[in-house]
Amino acid sequence: YSNRTVSSLTSSPSTDHAELNNTSPVKTPVKSQKKPSKASSPIHHTKSPSNKAPWRPPGRYQIPDILKASENTHRPATLSNKTSRSKKSHLAATLSSTNKIKHSPADSAKKSSPPQPLASAAVATPLKRPWIPVGKSPQVLPLPALPAAKANRPHALFDTKMRKTLPTSKIMDLNPREQYTGFTKIGSGANGAVVRASKRSNSKSRVAIKRCFIDDTDAPHLAYILREIRIMGCISHANLVGLKEATLWGDYVWLAMDLMSCSVFGLLCNISTGLPEPLAVCVLRECLQGLIHLHNKGYMHRDVKCENLLLSSSGEVKLGDFGLATPISRNNTARLGTAKWMSPEVIREISYDEKVDVWSTAITLIEIMDRVPPLYYMENTDDIFAEILWGPPPHFTFASPSNTIREIATWMLNQDSRRRPGAKDVLQHLDRQIQDGYLQCASQSDLALFVQHVFDKSTD
Asked: 438: closest CA among 429, 446, 447?
């Protein structure tokens, strides 16, 4: 160290004591500290933590609500221009003073004293927003317009109704001729021809396809098609033919359905007599179960006959062709169906209900065992109607059924529909007779073996 530095460091304590006595008293007792000279040691002395002012969180008086202040400037001017101009100038002054804050040593002394709040004009009560009704809120944009139907789309109205009727998973928008192969005609229904086909992607997946012509001017025919689509696509039961997929292509709607081996009518055409009674009882039970489910869903079939009872290779029996089905809730008086299977109330064109299916099922039972329906020899429709209304009750002609079957058929063929049983009543009575041993009912496997035997013999 230099001589001057050493002398300053070795100065007598009496000198320091005298300097302290000459200093003026202060209000706040603060420890005095000797301020080093510029030429002294280069060690920088920092202030003790006790000398710092306590930290205080900033309040509204330090950080003005800029968002609220700017929001007030964009509101409708309800005050005079002079007042709004003064508010804007005050806001600008507030922003500029906030942005020009500098951290200097002199500011540390000011922090010890409590800060003063801003003028009362800056925190004046903001103006209220005008009330806007909920339904006319400007922030809620209107919904976009629905896409208009393409003018060149064929049968747009029918296509729209079909898509509303069916689940999306059962609607196909591809060309059916490119999706299926091996088309072979196997029959016809009330609304169109039925062909057999298989999937190109999977030859083992075989379906029955019904093609129905779409004529936009024939409203009743379109209603029948839509009703059949609705029943097959939305009502699922083991004894009702189900719809796999539907396609509107060109002027035809293609309905891919469960493929069955044959109809009961086709089976009867390949044998010389009717079915044995146990097999007939089996077919009757399965048909009644399908009808009960259909009636519970609110529909009547109106065209039960052997041609619409389909058999599978495993012995399943399914009721199909719902082209004439109609809701039970309606006031049905139309004369629809097949003449020899019509009930008296349908022929008279008076109001009828689902019991018309019970009459048709009884005629079908006679057809299964006789191989032909009653009045098979008549061709004129008026003669058939007259015989049903005023002739003797329908009966078995060629078969020799048991007394139990005769009684059940007579019960189902009551001229008065109010005394005629329902499908559920017939099934319960039939099951009791089977349990008591008065009737024999074949199994599905027995029916499948019989069908296989008949068609194997016919191919030979």
From this structure: 429
Q: Does residue 210 have a known ligand-binding role?
A: yes
Burial class (CB in 10 A: 0-12, 13-18, 19+), 249: middle
- Quick one: DSSP state of residue 241? P
> Token pair for residue 222?
């379109």
Q: In sequence order, what are the beta bridge partners of 318?
A: 310
Strand partners, 209: 195, 256
- Token representation of residue 448: 């499948």
Percent of the chain with pLDDT over 70: 66
User: Could you tell me the pTM of the whole model?
Assistant: 0.65
Give which of 353, 359, 372, 364 is closest to 415, Cα–Cα. 359
**Domains assigned to the chain:** 153-259 (3.30.200.20), 260-460 (1.10.510.10)
Annotated active-site positions, please?
Answer: 303
Q: At 147, list the tokens.
A: 């896409």
Question: For the chain, how long is the longest CA-to-CA vector?
Answer: 153
DSSP 170-205: GB--S-HHHHEEEEEEEEE-SSSEEEEEEESS-TT-
CB 194 within 8 A of CB 210: yes
**Do 370 and 274 touch, CB atoms closer than 8 A?**
yes
Cα torsion 385, 386, 390, 395: sign: negative
pLDDT score at 173? 85
What's the confidence (pLDDT) of residue 11? 46
Contact present, 405 and 439 (Cβ < 8 Å): yes
Report for 22-26, 40-44, 95-99, 131-135: range of highest mean pLDDT: 131-135
Q: In angstroms, what CA-CA distances link 219 with 78, 98, 222, 225, 249?
A: 65, 78, 5, 10, 19
DSSP string for 88-112? HHHHHHHHHHHHT----HHHHHHHT
Q: Which helix (H) or strand (E) holds 368?
A: helix 355-370
Q: Which residues contact 250 (CB under 8 A, 6 or more apart)?
A: 154
For residue 142, pLDDT beyond 90? no
Short-list 252, 256, 260, CA closest to 169: 256
Which of 143-152, 362-371, 392-401, 403-412 has the weakest average pLDDT?
A: 143-152
Give the pLDDT of residue 10: 44
> Residue 48: its pLDDT value, please?
54
- Bridge partners (DSSP) of residue 262 are 311
How far, in Å, are 166, 170, 310, 320 from residue 259 at the CA level? 20, 16, 9, 11
* pLDDT classification of 368: cutoffs 50, 70, 90: very high
What mean pLDDT is predicted for residues 135-151? 55
